[in-house]
Task: structure prediction
Amino acid sequence: MPEQHLDSSNTYDSAATEVEYIGEETEGDLERKAELNAIADSMREALKGRRVLEVACGTGYWTKIAAEVATHVVALDISPKTLAVAQSRALPPESVEFCVHDAYELASVQGTYNAGLANFWLSHVPKARVQGFLEGFHRRLGEGSMVFMADNLYVPKSGGTLVVKRGNPDSFRLRRMPDGSMAEIIENYYDESSLLPLLQPYAEDLQVSMGNNFWWLRYRVKNIK
Ligand SMILES: C[S@@+](CC[C@H](N)C(=O)[O-])C[C@H]1O[C@@H](n2cnc3c(N)ncnc32)[C@H](O)[C@@H]1O
Result:
């Protein structure tokens, strides 16, 4: 099969109708399902009664859970096809809005928020853009906002071939696309020791949980200069 190295937004756009990002991968794996349930419980607690700005919402798996407890959710993704799948969940339109929007351009998002949600996104952010994303995300949310994030831990022999390139700080996963071709998608793995220095400049009351498959965390945005 020919290999492609695609911009991740295009990659996801072409895969959107095929992939339920979370559900598909946890089929038949009780430990992963139990950890996802723990993430959902922690997220419900963190986002209860809040106005949530969700970035890279994908097919809306976490949007649906956030909408159970939040007063309002604005869920953004760069891929219109993926958002069309999210829209088909028919979540209450008075409390959930889906918008095509770039996670690196959050200053132009309308509305006021006191919580941010970014699940299974950080791993897809190129290392060269992580600081820019975090800066824009926290500035848009503002001091005192609650932040919730979750993502994959590196699990050997899981998730397809990991590709590391000399001189490139990002790692990639080889994924088969719906048309049968192979594409490389950025997948950078974090653990507690790499998450803490990244988030501490923005975070107060940071609580990090490590499962065997996923990490998840919550904190309040501190006053950033
Ligand atoms: C692994 S999926 C995660 C989706 C969802 N958060 C979940 O956990 O099911 C990553 C998502 O990031 C979106 N994406 C990629 N680049 C983006 C960007 N620059 N701005 C916003 N979304 C982006 C993709 O379209 C895709 O839906």
